[in-house]
Amino acid sequence: MAGMGLPPYDDGNIFARILRGEIASKKVYEDQWALAFHDINPLAPVHVLVIPKGKYVSFADFSANGSADEIAGFMRAVGKIAKDLGLEAQGYRLLANMGEHSGQEVPHFHMHLFAGRPLGRMLST
Ligand code: 5GP
């Protein structure tokens, strides 16, 4: 459920379609709470997207309206994926875009997982 100021969830968004299996993705991990797959336009040697299975448009929506189990399950999945991909030794970056200024393109909450090279400063500009 979206909160004040957030758009309603759009069941036709691209990640909803990936969750339903209508669009193919290169799956990395799946459990009760989360699905992870490779970004179609990778910006680093490792660029994985992790999405909750529930219908949340953004971090603002998920953090406010997700259940404690959903939030814990999702966060544990993100950590497990990074660990299982062998990324802990050299490190990685997590990023979530939320809303207009962030440039969020897909209105289903997702976390980007970047790794595989030094990632530079936190923001490009
Ligand atoms: P945002 O800008 O919303 O944070 O990031 C959306 C991401 O989804 C982008 O990095 C983009 O490359 C990725 N993306 C968009 N469409 C698809 C798709 O159909 N499949 C996959 N695997 N990634 C997608």
Task: Write a structural description.
This protein has 125 residues and is an alpha+beta fold. It has helices at 14-19, 59-65, 68-84; strands at 27-30, 34-38, 46-52, 93-95, 111-115. The protein has a 5-stranded antiparallel beta sheet, with helices on one face. A hairpin with a 7-residue loop joins β2 (34-38) and β3. It has a single domain, classed as HIT-like (HIT family, subunit A). It contains 3 helices and 5 strands; from the N terminus they run αβββααββ. The model has no long low-confidence stretch (mean pLDDT 95). Bound molecules: guanosine-5'-monophosphate. The site of guanosine-5'-monophosphate has 14 residues, from β2.
Short recap of the structure:
The chain has 125 residues and is an alpha+beta fold. It has helices at residues 14-19, 59-65, 68-84, and strands at residues 27-30, 34-38, 46-52, 93-95, 111-115.
